[in-house]
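User: Hey, quick favor. My workstation is busy. Could you predict this chain's structure for me?
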Amino acid sequence: QVSELVQFLLVKDQKKIPIKRADMLKNVIREYRDAYSEIVNRAGRTLQEVFGLQLVEIDTKRHTYILINNLPRAEGEYLCRDKEKEKMGLLLVILSFIFMKGNSVRDSALWEFLNLLRVYPGKQHRVFGDVRKLLTEEFVRQK
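Assistant: No problem, here it is.
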């Protein structure tokens, strides 16, 4: 069960989708529910020792997890590929804006702010493509 869970977690992480406890129970652990904690703990240790990844619960009410890379970064290496870097830049700008507004912001205020940066919801952006879709689907899915 532990190795199956490790594989399941790695696949989910590749898709950059937060992992729900309910999905782990339904798809992997199934009839071993009573051993859930032990299985998850062992899978977490395996992920850490073999892949340098840490299993972190990001939402204790909804029991949602993500994997975080714990390996030290080599000098000069970037966090992500070029296309991903551009998206990460936009995400950091948006998260900074939300943070500066007290961790909550209306959609209209966010779009007003993005308009100042010449990023428009209805227009195809030359770098980001469909910005509304990027924000509402990809960024929201990744939480």
